[in-house]
Amino acid sequence: MIKGVLVRIRNVKAADLDEFYSLSSNYEDPGDFMPLSFVSEVAFKTEFADTGFWKDHCGKLLVEDSSGQIVGEAGFFKTAHYIDGREIYYRIFSGHRGKGYASETLALLAQFFFESSSMNRIQAVTVQGNDVSEHMLKKSGFVFEGTMRQARYFKGRLVDLNLFSRVRSERQV
After folding, report:
1. CB 3.0 to 4.6 Å from 161: which of 59, 84, 151, 154, for a disulfide?
2. Is the pLDDT score of 128 beyond 80?
3. Beta partners for 59?
4. What is the pLDDT of residues 22-56, one digit of tens each?
5. Phi, psi (5° rounding) for residue 55?
6. Do 45 and 162 touch, CB atoms closer than 8 A?
7. How far is CA 171 from CA 24, 40, 55, 67, 122, in A?
8. C-alpha distances in Å from residue 15, one per residue of 45, 53, 152
9. What is the DSSP string of 7-35?
10. Burial profile 14-27: b = 16 or more Cβ within 10 angstroms, e = fewer
């Protein structure tokens, strides 16, 4: 478990599965920039049974508030076989946004990444116009690298994505 002031980040437990599936598949208020995709409950639970949602510095983690309530999810995934690093993602569920949970989650996970792996690079991608997330990334030491033009189909149209990264030598302490 990774403990901060506002959040605790931890691996998913079997006892969390029903609540976590319900929260992560609730798209009534996904946020303005959350891509939507459905995952069946069977596939969700099968992935957990196979990997516990964690393998080779990749996977899903739960974000809890200080009382232990699940408020979001975050994690890492591999983007391309030739990149020495991972992409980070974070999502705070509806009703829990605007409390600093995402900022602290991002900072804690970036620190954890460099302390727990020998990989050199961590990156994040935002839908262009997601100023809140881009501000958090910059505040956590991520550097804007550029724009990937028309890189994703999102809400019925192709959108540009902004790429941010941090490398080991830029690690904040």
Report:
1. 151
2. yes
3. 54, 76
4. 888 876 655 555 656 678 899 999 999 999 999 88
5. -160, 130
6. no
7. 30, 38, 23, 30, 10
8. 11, 14, 34
9. EEEE---GGGHHHHHHHHT--SS--TTPP
10. eebbeebbebbeee
Angle at which helix 41-51 crosses helix 17-24, to 10 degrees, equals 130
* The amino acid at 75: G
**Tokens at residue 18, please?**
């029903």
The dihedral sign for the CA sequence 155, 34, 52, 82: positive
Instruction: Return phi, psi of residue 37, to 5°.
Output: -160, 145
Per-residue burial over 135-150, b if 16 or more Cβ lie within 10 Å, else e, is: ebbeebbbeeeeeeee
Q: Please state the φ and ψ torsions of residue 122, each to the nearest 5 degrees.
A: -125, 135
Furthest C-alpha separation in the chain: 42
> In DSSP terms, which residues pair with 65 in a beta bridge?
7
Q: Which residue has the tokens 């983690």?
A: 61
Burial class (CB in 10 A: 0-12, 13-18, 19+), 88: buried
pTM of the model: 0.88
